[in-house]
Amino acid sequence: MFALRYYSSYAAMWITSLSTVVYFFRKDFHKLRWVFAMLGLINAIYIIGQTLAGYPFLERAGFFLNGTISGVFIAFTIPFFFDGKKYVAIGAALIAGTAVVMTKTSVPVGAFSLALVAYGLKYLKNKKIVMSIVGTVSTIFTISYFYDPGLFSSAKRFLFYEYSFDYFATKLNHWFGSGTGTFMMFGQEVQKTYSFSYDPITRAYSEMMIFMHNDYLETLFSLGVIGFVLLLWAILKAVLSTYKRGDYALLSCQFGYIGSMLFDYPFRYAPHCIIGGYLLCYGLRDSRYRKNNLEEK
């Protein structure tokens, strides 16, 4: 346990240091968004290609070998294209929407839909565009449901949330939690305590929960109330700053990330964590940049 805490703390220190450097990075910071956008687009095309080639469900998982992880990556990177030319934005949205549906996983569908809604805030006075976005989101959910009627069934996941929170409330320090990165160990302890996913016939667990599949609750579990409040404060400040600045493409990506954190763990997956740090840092830089984010004041 000591080793786990030590390496988790070391990783947290490294990520914090890197984020600090990125936060004060001056020129060309905005160009990273196009790198992330292109990675998301390539991943989406790859998933569509896997599906058209007849790959079964578990094998059309994109670059990250997991449909959910690849899908949410698309949801919070491709919206960077939305501030481009009209045909580029529409094409990127269609490719992303098709890819997240083809992953047959619910989290990317919800995250990308939330990203579209966030971008729609830019056009609140334009009823045609608002209705187009509403129609697109409704179409994505409808197609996803008929593609897989059991797609949005999360009763088992909510049950694990309940058990994990009960464990936190009764056995852990409420202010500081279990420690950074320790849920991989405590998650299995939660399973044993509440017999979650235990099959009495085989006398084995059908799955091992090393992530809570909810970054907010896992942060509360691992870092306690203090860490949880700090995380929410940072996210809220970044989102409000982005909204006031009028950078709706960035806002869309932020909402895609925020949505994916509700039922998945992008904050615990290295490439996704780096992009999450970028979205956070970029959102907090409003006092340094003009409205277009490309020049310093």
Kindly summarize this structure in a few lines.
This protein is mostly helical and 297 residues long. It is built from 11 helices and 2 strands.
Can you walk through the features of this model?
This protein is mostly helical and 297 residues long. It folds into two domains: 214 residues, no CATH class; 50 residues, no CATH class. 66% of the residues lie in helices and 1% in strands. A hairpin with a 4-residue loop joins strand 1 and strand 2. The longest helix is centred in the C-terminal third of the chain and has 31 residues. The C terminus is likely disordered.
Distance between the termini: 48 Å
Helix content: 55-70%
The number of strands is: 2
Oligomer: single chain
Low-confidence stretches: 290-297
Percent range for β-strand residues: under 5%
Classification by helices and strands: mainly alpha
